Amino acid sequence: MNDMKYIKVLTAITFLCVPAMATAQISNVYGTAIKVNDKVITHFEILQRTIMLQLFGAKGDLQDSARNTLIEERLYLQAGKELGVLPNEADVQAAMDEFASRGKLSTTQLLEVLNSRGVAPESYRAFVEAGLTWRRVVRARFVNQARITDDDIDAALSFQNGAGQLDFLLSEIILSDGQRGSESASKLALRLSRSIKGQAGFSSAARKYSGAPSAAKGGRLDWVPSSALPANIVAQLLTLQPGQVTGPITLSGNVALFQLRSSRKTKGAESKPDVMSYTTVSLPAESDSKRAAAKARVMRSSVDTCLDMRAAAQKSSATFGEGAGTAQEVPADIALALANLDPKETTIVTQANGQKMVVMLCTRNQELVEGEREIIRESLFGQKVANLGSGYLQELKGDAFITYE
User: Fold this and answer.
1) Judgement on whether residues 198 and 281 belong to the same structural domain of the protein
2) pTM for the whole structure
3) Which of 10, 15, 271, 304 is the most buried (most CB within 10 A)?
4) pLDDT tops 60 at residue 280
5) What is the DSSP letter of 77?
6) Between helices 107-116 and 3-14, what is the axis angle to 10°?
7) How far apart are CA 306 and CA 344, in angstroms?
């Protein structure tokens, strides 16, 4: 079954007739539902966004989420107009193409899926335009405040300065885009990062929300050397005190949070990033997540070497993969999985589409990687801008006149 047919079948099965039920209670679907300053949000827009959220895999009260996001988007566009950073048509089209590509679709294919559920192209365009505008707003407004100095980067790279190895004791929460939808996963991650208090709170949230194998242990990981972690994770960890939580971090389609439980410096020679070789087996998709997890555990127990992984993949009609590189060069979710492994050990990774992947570490060596300063710079800048933007949005909401009809 090709991607388009699969998506159409899936949405036909999961669609819950939300707009049909809601429309029956609205006398004028094109009438005003909410006013945000001098801008109007119609019942039609709310219904359109509700369908989109459902198709994108969002959970919870979808109509309430639709109303809230549309209010925020009116404020995005207001701020964009005031700052003179509204995107042109070519920019919006490029952003539409990029968003569709996350699901391995063209814009035309995605619009066909949306159209089959009654979503107009203009509704999708408005959604993308608002998000693009907000990214431009926060960059334009906070570019100076979020400037990253060489001292900031030096601090982030201090674990490579010859003073020994910096290790982290972490807990993790991994939220799968494939199970929750990209927007829903990101919003949940942001809410958790701001609300979690203490190790007990993080542990409880990990058991409830995380899709990682560590969820059963409250997300707790063993000591991890900084050289084995992706640079964007290290950049945030270096700013934390024990008990604090990172902001949301994207890991190959999933969204992750980490709590720093402790850190330590170990004496020794200059620490250099690990170069790892690994193999993967991606199991066929299963509609039942428990059955998929069980098959992945059986696969783990049947392999002892990286050569076994290839044979096991062939036997189970699964997809075999292999790769090598530093934690900054391999996919972020795989790098994180490898960080806690010794050679010939395995773990299970839940991919963004919900599929289970068995990962085995083959070898681990050390080699210095170039260009890490710029990776750290971009990561620190992005985190600062996101935090400043979140506060600015709350200011805009506080100053806005929002009325419900």
Assistant:
1) no
2) 0.48
3) 271
4) yes
5) H
6) 30
7) 7
Whether residue 119 sits in one domain with residue 236: no
Residue range 336-349, pLDDT digits in tens = 888 878 888 998 88
CATH number at residue 54: 1.10.4030.10
> Which ranges in 227-361 belong to alpha helices (H)?
231-237, 289-301, 306-315, 332-339
Residues 161 and 132 in one domain: no
Angle at CA 333, nearest 5°, toward 249 and 382? 25
Q: Within this chain, do residues 127 and 248 fall inside the same structural domain, yes or no?
A: no
Q: Domain boundary at 97, 115, 142, which?
A: 142
**Number of structural domains in the chain:** 3
Indicate whether 160 pLDDT > 50.
no
What gap in Å lies between CA 30 and CA 28, rounded to an integer? 5
DSSP tag of 268:
S
The pLDDT assigned to 27 comes to 61
186-211 pLDDT, tens digit per residue, is 788 888 988 888 899 999 999 999 98
In a domain, 160, yes or no: yes
Which residue in 239, 208, 222, 206 sits closest to 170, CA to CA? Answer: 222
Cα distances (Å, whole numbers) of residue 50 to 10, 58, 68: 17, 9, 11
Look up residue 259 and give its amino acid: Q
Q: Which domain holds residue 111?
A: 3-142
| Same domain for 27 and 108 | yes
Provide the CB-side half-sphere exposure for 193 (13 A, CA): 23
pLDDT of residue 365: 67
Can you tell me the distance from the alpha carbon of 222 to that of 161, in angstroms, rounded to the nearest whole number? 24
Whether the Cβ atoms of residue 249 and residue 255 lie closer than 8 Å to each other: yes
User: Which amino acid is present at 396?
Assistant: L
* Residue 320 φ then ψ, to 5°: -95, 140
CA-CA-CA-CA torsion sign (295, 297, 301, 307): positive
Residues 296 and 308 in one domain: yes
Residue 374 lies in a domain: no
Amino acid at 38: D
Question: Residue 229 class from Cβ within 10 Å (0-12 exposed, 13-18 middle, 19+ buried)?
Answer: buried
- Report yes or no: 274 and 228 within 8 Å, Cβ to Cβ: yes
**Torsion (CA) 48, 51, 52, 53 in degrees, nearest 10:** 120
**What is the enclosing helix (H) or strand (E) of 373?**
helix 372-399
